[in-house]
Amino acid sequence: MTTMTDKSSPRVRIISHPDVRRSLMVQKAYSEGMRALVLYTASIQDAIAMGRADGMAEDELKSLDALNDLLLPIVKGYGSEKSWVLLGTESLQTFGGSGFTMDWPLEQYVRDAKIDTLYEGTTAIQGLDFFFRKIVKDQGKAIGKISSEMSAFATSGGLLAEEKQAFGKALQEVGTMISTLVGHAMASQEKVTELYKIGLNTSRLLMAVGDVVIAWLLLRQAEIAMGRLDGKDKEFYAGKVAAAKYFVAHVLPHITADRKILEAEDGSLMDLAEASF
Ligand SMILES: Cc1cc2nc3c(=O)[nH]c(=O)nc-3n(C[C@H](O)[C@H](O)[C@H](O)COP(=O)(O)OP(=O)(O)OC[C@H]3O[C@@H](n4cnc5c(N)ncnc54)[C@H](O)[C@@H]3O)c2cc1C
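Above: query sequence and flavin-adenine dinucleotide SMILES. Below: predicted holo structure tokens.
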């Protein structure tokens, strides 16, 4: 880019272009974050299996089960949506026109990834399940448990204190989104149409919670990587720190906009005549 007006400048690989780097980092941060989310959820399932085998107290097992249940719509709903969107808008795009052809596997990944947003309950259904069953019916216990853990991490300082602070803000925004929707749920006992304000925002909430959980897991990895920036595989660890910082700076600020949109919801979309669509 710095020599773009010089006709004699040599050709460069596409990784030299800022927008390609942006796209690669978006893909890296989300895919590493989502992989971490799947493994974190699997670790909860392992803890349940080991707890059962070791005679863990029933209330502790129940609490782990509820956490696993809470995480499942995030893994399925958030994971499949982000994978499908990113494969199409970023990964295939990185290949340019050849990404559209069958010379590369990308076009098939895009088609294959789409089904994950549909079967076993579409994303909208995952969003409804997440709010009504995994939060309201659970009386907020599982979301409260994981939020306290994330909140303690956000205030734990250290070398990534600034990023953790930004993460803590996003966590608070998500907390506000949840309490606003819980308020609508309570109000719906008096006025049933208040439920629409929830239904219009459950997918938004699911995606925002997914982003916050991913940011937490990326920052946890980055914290470990910070201590290994000088040794063997230093580029690998630098990539971990860069991905976490990128996600915090470029994704989390959108959650404030989501919170504002959700709070401003008046439900009027439900009054619009079908013919107007
Ligand atoms: C390749 C493939 C394999 C499959 N394999 C199996 C299988 O092995 N076993 C099996 O049982 N099923 C299987 N299915 C079915 C699959 O589970 C359903 O397609 C899926 O659950 C979506 O249901 P639907 O197609 O009836 O869509 P619909 O329920 O009609 O949904 C249409 C749209 O409306 C939205 N929507 C519907 N209800 C609501 C609501 N209450 N609130 C908000 N939005 C809503 C949906 O999100 C979606 O966007 C398969 C489907 C495919 C495509």
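DSSP finds ten helices and no strands in the chain.
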